[in-house]
Amino acid sequence: MHDPVDTWAGDFGDAYTERCSAEESRIRKRTRMWARWLDSFGSREPRSILEVGCNLGLNQRALQQLTDAELFAVEPNDSARQTVLSDGVMDEAHIRAGRGEDLPFDTASMELVFTNGVLIHVHPDNLGQVADEMYRVSSRYILVSEYFNAEPVELEYRGLSGHLWKRDFAGFFLDRFSDLEVVTDGFLWKRTIGIDNATWALMEKRA
């Protein structure tokens, strides 16, 4: 099995970072998206947030405009992390080299752990391990925003096989962890948010 993370950590990931430059219009779209998501927390807004797979930090740039939460991120691509650092988005204490299967953070150390268009690139054989790590590091909330399909299906991605899958990702978490419950969920429509057509779900650990 070829691990897609190796692809993203190399030249392919470098090219993606160059295509997804931190233009103001891109950050505005993320800000609109996050304003909707943060409203879902009500008065329980998280005080620490970890993004798994941040690339050049578009979500982090948007979050900085909306919340006082302490922000953290994990990213396997060196050039993407360097962009985050050189742009002053985060410092080395808050963005770390790593991958979803082995998050370099303590158990229950983040109130919210999230992915945005990342789980779709995790090989199905590794998805359970990534979910376990996100669950371990989260003390309360998990949010996933990914392409949806009722049944797992693989699609070609930029001429590559074994690099993109659609499925019910939130359902995968709910089936795997019995104490997770959905707080709210929704659909991101490209016509209004302008990023991708994707479903999202905010889940909470309940006693």
From TrEMBL:
UniProt superkingdom: Bacteria
Name assigned to this protein: Methyltransferase domain-containing protein
Organism: Marinicauda pacifica
Pfam name, any one: Methyltransf_11
GO terms, molecular function: S-adenosylmethionine-dependent methyltransferase activity
Domain Methyltransferase type: 50-137
Keyword Transferase included in the entry's annotation: yes
GO terms of biological process kind: methylation
Entry keyword set: Methyltransferase, Transferase
InterPro entries assigned to the protein according to its UniProt record, in alphabetical order: Methyltransf_11 (IPR013216), Pseudamin_synth-assoc_MeTrfase (IPR020027), SAM-dependent_MTases_sf (IPR029063)
